[in-house]
Every structure is written in C-alpha cells, then in structure tokens.
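User: Let's play a game. I give you a shape written as tokens, and you guess the letters that built it. Ready? Here's round one.
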C-alpha cells in the first residue's frame, strides 16, 4: 500500500512539474512577445524547401523546440545553426532533441532574449513570429544583418517590408522571403 501511495505521489509531482514549467514558459514567452506555438511539421518542410541558397550561418529567433533548425541542418549539414529561445520549457526540449540529433555539433541553442543577440554573422534567419513582434525586430534586422542575408518568415509578413517572394502552399499559411540589400532602404515599400 505504501509503495502504491509513493508511486501515485511521485506521478502527481511529475505532472505538477510539467504543468508548472508549461505555465511559467507560457508567461515568459508572452511577456517577451509571442506565445510558444510550434510550426506544424508539414509547414516546416515547406519552409526549408523554400530556402533559396546554400546557407552558412542560420538562426531561428524564438526557436521553440528547434524543429526548424533540425530540419535546416538535416538538409544543409555543412551549415551552422543557432537557436535563441527565452522560455525554459521549449529550450529544454530543444536541448534534449539536440542530444540525439546526428549533426548536433552543427546546432547550438541559447536561452536568451534575441533582441540582445548580434546578428552580423547570419546569412539566413528562419522566423515564426507574429507581425507585431516582427515590426519591433525589423530595425535590428536592417541594422545588423549583412547584405544578401535572407529572412524567411512563416505565416506573418514583416510589416512595411516588401517581400522578394510570397509562397502560399497551404490555405491561410504564407511564407515570405526577404533579402537584405546593400542599401537596406530598398527593402521598404
Ligand atoms: C511562435 S513560437 C515559434 C517557435 C519555433 N520557431 C517554431 O517554428 O516552431 C515563438 C517563440 O519565440 C519565443 N520568443 C518570443 N520572444 C522572444 C525573445 N525576445 N527572445 C527569445 N525568444 C522569444 C517564444 O517563447 C516562442 O517559443
């Protein structure tokens, strides 16, 4: 009887731990901008196939469980990928998945606010963020990304930027491709 009660108590503690960490993660994500919503796997594949060049340095700002970067490195294993995630729960999931990923040396995850990350070395950003957060991020992208860097956003466009290409493979789910020009002003509509 004592053993059964102990197992039961342990189960309750584990469930509480997961619920609490989900709740704390949701609070942190929302405080910093966007909630943690994963891109559906079908959309991940489409987004990776939409990459127009051979990337060298890839970043996902707000990487969640890292699914975009795992898919990107599986297709471009010579590239390096960096994922930045503020919420502890998806960050933990990303690190656990990295542990069993064959090209794990190519990917690094950081629990960090992406507004404090220098972007100068990246030639490809993969973003699944809402337009209001993309609007706040746009000046940083303009200032720091090198010429010819590409940005692909899922579902939401960068407000007031003109996309090079818009791809609409799924109903209500567009992908937007942007390229940083020499003069970043050329990006503006
Ligand atoms: C819509 S989810 C996208 C997750 C992942 N990129 C995907 O496609 O599955 C946005 C993520 O951005 C994270 N986030 C929001 N603001 C952030 C910030 N300032 N710094 C780091 N991560 C942030 C949230 O915690 C959330 O996990």
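Assistant: Ready! My guess for every position:
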């Amino acid at each position: 009887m004592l053993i059964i009660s102990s197992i039961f108590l342990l189960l309750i503690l584990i469930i509480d731990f997961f619920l609490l960490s989900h709740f704390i993660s949701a609070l942190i994500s929302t405080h910093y901008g966007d909630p943690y919503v994963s891109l559906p796997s079908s959309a991940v594949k489409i987004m990776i196939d939409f990459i127009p060049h051979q990337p060298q340095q890839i970043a996902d700002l707000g990487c969640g469980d890292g699914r975009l970067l795992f898919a990107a490195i599986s297709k471009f294993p010579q590239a390096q990928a960096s994922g930045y995630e503020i919420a502890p729960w998806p960050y933990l999931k990303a690190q656990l998945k990295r542990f069993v990923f064959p090209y794990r040396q190519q990917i690094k995850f950081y629990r960090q606010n992406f507004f404090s990350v220098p972007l100068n070395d990246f030639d490809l950003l993969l973003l699944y963020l809402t337009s209001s957060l993309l609007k706040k991020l746009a000046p940083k992208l303009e200032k720091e990304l090198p010429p010819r860097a590409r940005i692909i956003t899922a579902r939401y466009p960068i407000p007031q930027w003109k996309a090079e290409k818009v791809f609409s493979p799924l109903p209500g789910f567009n992908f937007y491709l942007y390229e940083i020009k020499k003069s970043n002003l050329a990006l503006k509509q």
